[in-house]
Amino acid sequence: MLSTPPLKRTAVLLPAAAALAIASIVVVGVFRGPQPTEPDPVRPTAAPSGVIARYQRILRDTPGDYATWAALGAAYVQQARITVDPAFYPKAEGALRRSLRLDGGDNYQAMIAMAALANARHQFGDAVRWGKRAERIAPSNPQLYGALNDAYTQLGDYPAATAAVARMNELGPGVAAFTRASYELETHGHPAGARRVLRQALDSAYTPSDVAYCRYYLGELALHSGGLDEAARQYQAARTADPAYVPALQGIAKTAALRGDLTAAISGYGEVVSRVPQPQYVAEYIELLGAAGRTREAAAQRRLLASERKLMADNGVVDDLGAAEYAADTGDAVGALRHARAEWAHRHSVIVADALAWALHLNGHDRQALRYARQATRLGWRNALFYRHRADIHAALGQGAAARRDRETAHRINPRLDPRIPAIGRAS
């Protein structure tokens, strides 16, 4: 592990979320950035292609080196995220299983990397199982609690996610821990606390990619509360910190779209997608092209999105949530419901609850939709789209007063939400 220069010790108490005891997350001591060897499923840093080549050379000489096989597998996971090439996932699994065959007893490094791989493939139950195996061997390793927090959050097991992020912050405070704590606060209805902890993460950021990551998510918090000027400032600061950090370009383009400048937004997304053809970015680009009436270009991007999703599925990544949201946004009500139900069968996060509620509404099943819409808002997350969806469901049921209240809530949360371009305004 690389050493980090010491910083002044601080203690920060995050605001409480009563039912889930977020007040138990206490950040004491600050590291400059995450542990360099962390197989972090949230925040990829520098491209590890050179590291991969070095590990491969070592393994040609010492093929029984289980630790290097584990490190190689973790590097493949990172490379897949950075390049958006899921073909690295089978390579990662092969390297990690080779490591575990060589040492399946106390090889917690490979187990943590397997948890990260499972999270990347959206196999969140498997991620929990690998994380718990690693915990029995190395209960003081903060990396495994990051993987567990990610998996529990996606599964909708929020008490377990809170406990995991609290443990991670206790054992290894730093950018990776702080940013997860920030998201925990945001989803439990504490945007001010989320912003404060993100700023602490920024203060502890050590590399340009860490700074860019923190700035981007400060921009996201501003964007989803309607603060477009602050969002644009943070996205630009992210781009300045690390010009290679593509999400900063996406943030700048989103801000332009919500300001009504479709020309600038489309130009920005064209650059984003040419550099990183991630399905989310392609779907957002399609939405903007459609809004601008550029149907031929939108059709070309739809073909790209289909090929990207097939490539993901062929390499073990199944994303019914993204497919459900895209189908709903593009008028495919039947497809939206099919994919949303498939995703709900595997996990019960508030984001999936909202997607299922909206899909049910689009298919005329509003009484059932309202049950899921209430589940989507159960944490108190100030997510304007959730309340906008619930308002429309109330209206369809003839519940006018409830619909008005939810519309007013959505407007207070984010007065710049534009339901005509839902993918651009969707918080995740």
UniProtKB/TrEMBL annotation:
The keyword Transmembrane applies. It comes from the Bacteria. InterPro entries: CellSynth/LPSAsmb/PSIAsmb (IPR051012), TPR-like_helical_dom_sf (IPR011990), TPR_rpt (IPR019734). Keywords: Membrane, Repeat, TPR repeat, Transmembrane, Transmembrane helix. The chain crosses the membrane at residues 12-31. Coiled coil: none annotated. The keyword Transmembrane helix applies. PANTHER family: LIPOPOLYSACCHARIDE ASSEMBLY PROTEIN B, TPR REPEAT-CONTAINING PROTEIN PA4667. This is Tetratricopeptide repeat protein. It comes from Actinomadura syzygii.
